[in-house]
Structures are given as structure tokens and as C-alpha cells.
Amino acid sequence: MKKQIKKWSLRLIVTCIFILGLLIGIVLNPILLYAHSSADGNYTIYHQQQLNPSFITRLHDVDKLLQSGELYSGSLKLSVCINDGSYYPKLIQTIRGAAFGWGFDKEIVLAGNMNAACNYLEINGYRWNLTELLAHEATHCLQFNKYGLLHSNPVAQIPEWKWEGYAEYIARKNKATLIKNITHMLEVENTDNNNWIDFDDSTGTVIPYYKSWLLVQYSLDIRKMRYDQLLKDNTEESALRNEMMAWYNANKR
Q1: At 41, is the secondary structure helix, strand, or coil?
Q2: Where are the domains of the chain?
Q3: 0.70 exceeded by the pTM?
């Protein structure tokens, strides 16, 4: 009986290793679940349906945002996986959980219903600016490229506000000044906001990301830190927020 149990256990382990290897292979090779791929610059776009030319325009706008950040690498090749009928985005959602999109290693994966011409991606009535979503997820790829697996989230357990806040900072570089952003945040906090904040273009973001963006914007624009310095800085989030609000109260008009 012991021999039989040992034999079954070995088979189970081998089967699990095989399934895990197969899953990793599919995740890192999205072409296996897509009918088409298109190339533009540093991007390979995987899609099931005909690609809207406006999507290429969005990627060019993404490049302009990424180039403004210190982590930018012109040699990094990225894959962009569109949610237009392929099972691949659903597979990533099963692994990572629900989201508008995901950025990991060299992969950008989009969920929801995309309207490239009008520049948004929609889920359950909520719209995220498509260019900014792509730039946000591409920034996560740049973080991974710069710091490696062991020093990137989720392995490194970097405070969420530093990790997501920097992606928002790069993606929304052209939105508004910090004074205007904090004022907008204070206005929305006094409403029944459902954890969502809107922008003038009828898109928005979740409030935790918005608050993280403000802290990073304060750190990099006002404190004049580099992102590497921010990652190493030991200032508590609450203390930094209090410092930012003191600065705001002293400088608002």
C-alpha cells in the first residue's frame, strides 16, 4: 500500500509540474491563444479581430508618457494583449484577479470593452482612459525590467502606494498640477463616490490609486526625489500625507 501511495504521489507531482509548466508557457506566449499579431515599434499587439488604426495612435501617445520617466528603456519590447475574443485575458484574470488591465514582465493585458477611437476602456459602466491605462501597465513592465523579479511587486512587497502611485504618476503626467489634484480629491471625498473619481474626459480611476498618485506626485515634483530615492525612503505613508496636506494648505489659492 505504501508503494502504491508513493507511486500515486509521484504521478501527482509530475502532473502538477507539467500543468504549471504548460500554464507558464501559455502566459508567456500569448500568440498561442490569439489569431493575429501586429507589430509597431517596440510593441507586438495580439488580437482576434481586425485592429483599429486608432490603437496604434494610442501606443504612440503612450511612448511619449513613458519617455518622461526615469525608468524608460527604449530597448524594451512589450506585448499588448487585447480583449477582443481571445481566452487569454480571461486566463490572466483567473490568475491575477479582476482589473482593467495587468502589466507584468513584458506583457500588457487589457480587460473590458475597448473603444480605441474614443480612447477609453469600459467595465461595468466605469471608463478608464485607454492611453493612460496602457501607460500605467507599461510602467509596471518598466519597473520589472529595472528591478527584476525579486525586487518587484508582489515578491518585494513594496508599499502599494509607491508601486501603483508611480504607474499613475507616469500615466497621468498631463492631467493637472498637484494643487488642482488635491482639491479635486477633497471635493470627491465629500460625495457618495463609490470609491471612484472622475476626470474631465469622462474617464476615471479608483480612489486608492488616485491618492497614491498624489503622494508620488508630491514626492517627485515638490520634494524633488527620484523614484529610486522614494523606494528607499522610510517616511511613513501617513506622515508623508500630512506633510503634503500642510504644503497644500500653505500654497492653495
Answers
A1: coil
A2: 31-251
A3: yes
